[in-house]
Specification:
alpha/beta; Alpha-Beta Plaits; Rossmann fold; 2 domains; eight-stranded mixed beta sheet; 15 helices; globular
């Protein structure tokens, strides 16, 4: 379990000026005369409003400098705790902590810090601004199988498709699993390249126009042999939404028992960053320029998840590499389906094609969800559900500013794009009965 621990996540830009509700809730939980173990910080001059607390370091320096060995990190839940009986209140831990997460009570002569309320932090309920969340990383570990993707590939630095495929295969496992790929970025891992095998499972290289057809034949062959195999496709938006859509629609209509995962990088990134039907409105590509009078793509993107849901298949979902537990649960649900096709649409940022910093890929995923640009939802046997509720959406500009492909947008463009985002969200909410 080491390395997979739950932790408190703080988003300081959501903290309102002067708020200290989280500290009050913490102090109340601890009892009379006990200070809160999370500290609000309001710097008026710099316009900063946030909180400080322990981040439960993997190698806590406070424990290393404690002269009485009063501080230790639990191997069970990863929480760094202080054994008060041993603490002498010397303050060495507060000096060494780089995050300002340890404090000394001068009256009691003891150090204190956050212990996540043993996995149920009370500060969360007090924060109404979504500045605090409790990330439950340990749950993800329970889903993981052996990594069956071999080290090294030729993906671009920071490619989200690489992250999505590796994680997907660790959830599915290699037993009785056959992977189907097609020309595109993910061919680096879904099929053999230059006499090397990137995965430890059987894989089949298809054309962009026949992935579901080849999968159907393979699945039916093994069914006739009396063997249940998991046939999973990992294909880009070009093969899914454009040239390969008819076979996908046909397999859905026939009720073929397949798992189809689309990694949507919103363009033909492997062949020169051309636009696809999932390229967003006003998005820049080499065929929808934003210079010389151009303003990016003039049409709205094709909403493939909704189209697939309209087929009435057993399971449809959206996912991102930035929300791993949600992604894992959806893969498991897709694998459990035995009476039809399952479709998962994965938001897959392309740093190269989107003109983004590779370090920001996960931030882009999360911001796409938090701005409602890419809502997370699922439809299971006709029942719709939003799997990640966004109560206080962030401005759409916080998403678009992370990528150069939207750098040309003007105020009117933002308003049009936001109207499109809001209208699509309303469809999901009506189906999920959230309005």
């Amino acid at each position: 379990m080491k390395g997979f621990y739950d932790h408190l996540k703080i988003e300081p830009d959501r903290c309102p000026e002067g708020c200290s509700e989280c500290e009050k809730a913490c102090a109340k939980e601890r009892g009379e005369g006990i200070s809160g173990r999370i500290k609000p910080v309001h710097v008026e001059e710099g316009g900063f409003h946030g909180v400080l607390t322990c981040v439960q370091c993997s190698q806590p320096v406070c424990a290393q400098v404690c002269p009485t060995a009063a501080i230790a990190k639990s191997e069970v839940d990863g929480v760094v705790r202080i054994e008060l009986e041993k603490c002498v209140g010397c303050g060495m831990c507060t000096v060494e902590c780089p995050y300002g997460g340890v404090y000394v009570d001068a009256l009691k002569g003891k150090a204190y810090k956050c212990d996540t309320c043993d996995g149920d932090p009370k500060c969360l309920g007090a924060c109404t601004h979504e500045a605090l969340s409790f990330v439950k990383s340990r749950k993800v570990y329970d889903y993981l199988h052996e990594d069956i993707v071999t080290p090294g590939n030729t993906f671009c630095l920071g490619c989200a498709a690489d992250l999505a495929f590796r994680f997907m295969m660790r959830i599915l496992g290699g037993e009785n699993c056959i992977v189907f790929g097609t020309p595109g970025c993910a061919a680096n891992v879904t099929t053999a390249m230059m006499s090397t095998m990137p995965t430890k499972v059987t894989s089949v290289f298809c054309l962009m126009t026949d992935i579901p057809s080849v999968m159907t034949g393979t699945k039916r062959y093994f069914r006739k042999k009396g063997k249940d195999v998991t046939c999973v496709a990992f294909a880009g938006d070009g093969a899914t939404a454009d040239v390969g859509f008819q076979p996908l629609s046909g397999a859905a209509e026939r009720g073929e028992n397949l798992i189809y995962v689309c990694y949507d990088n919103e363009g033909y990134m492997n062949t020169g960053i051309q636009r696809s039907s999932t390229t967003p409105y006003r998005g820049w590509t080499t065929t929808t320029p934003a210079t010389g009078g151009g303003r990016g793509k003039q049409m709205a993107s094709k909403n493939i998840p909704l189209i697939m849901a309209a087929h009435g298949i057993p399971y449809v979902a959206t996912a991102t590499p930035g929300h791993l537990e949600d992604f894992a649960q959806k893969i498991m649900k897709a694998k459990a389906v035995k009476d039809g096709l399952s479709y998962i649409h994965v938001f897959s940022p392309c740093p190269t094609g989107w003109r983004a910093n590779p370090e920001n890929v996960i931030d882009i995923c999360r911001m796409a969800v938090e701005t409602n640009y890419f809502p997370l939802w699922e439809m299971e046997k006709g029942e719709w559900r939003i799997t990640h509720q966004v109560r206080n959406p962030r401005p759409l500009q916080e998403f678009t500013r992370l990528m150069g492909r939207f750098s040309h947008l003007q105020k009117a463009d933002y308003e049009e794009l936001k109207e499109l985002v809001d209208s699509r969200l309303r469809i999901i909410k009506r189906n999920a009965e959230c309005e």
